[in-house]
Amino acid sequence: MATFRGIAAIGTGVLALLDDAWARDPFVADTMETSLIRAEDLKERPFAFGVTLLVHRVAVSGTSRNTPPTVDGPRRPLSFEVDFVVIAWGPSVQRELELLGWCMRVLDDEPVLTPALLNRAVPSVFAATEIVQVVANPLPLAAHSRLGDDRLSAAYTARAAGLEL
Q: For residue 12, what are the CA distances in angstroms to 27, 72, 98?
């Protein structure tokens, strides 16, 4: 079962997936930077060309909380969801749209974050049999406006099976 560090590992895992795909892509020549950010970091451009990931919500998933709690023994797993937006940064709107489209293609082609990827930046968090699924999840307009910026972005949800606190 993933440790409490699983939420952080998901953010770095998504960025590692994008970094790996960028390195394999023979059609890209630019150097792409990636970074986890907070909402207040949107006030300044983080780099000339790249992708940021902003986690805007973490929630317990109610779908798998039907396992009864135990008095003695191991705790039940805490299934959770991490909602995030991928934000493209570039020298022009055209380059940002191209980069965002590329990111969306990668996340659709590779919607499963493996333990090897998740444990790269945050070691020993996910067991060898645990995965995280990433699915597109468009933000409602009200939620998008709460982020405080009109950056080009795409919204996703990462679903993890269990977290041991």
A: 24, 34, 22
**Residue 51, number of CB atoms within 10 A of its CB:** 26
| Termini Cα distance of the chain | 10
In this prediction, residue 165 carries a pLDDT of 46
To 5 degrees, how large is the angle CA 131–CA 132–CA 133?
Answer: 120
CB atoms within 10 A of CB 141: 8
Q: What angle do CA 72, 74, 78 make, to 5 degrees?
A: 125
pLDDT, tens digit, for every residue of 35-64? 999 988 888 899 999 999 999 888 887 765
What Cα–Cα distance (Å) separates residue 8 from each residue in 2, 5, 160?
A: 11, 6, 12
Sign of the C-alpha dihedral, residues 157, 158, 159, 164?
negative
Position 136: which residue type?
Answer: A
Question: If we measure between CA atoms, which residue out of 18, 1, 51, 32 comes closest to residue 134?
Answer: 18
The CATH number of domain 2-68+75-164 is 3.30.2000: yes
The CA-atom distances, in angstroms, between 101 and each of 105, 136, 151 are: 6, 13, 14
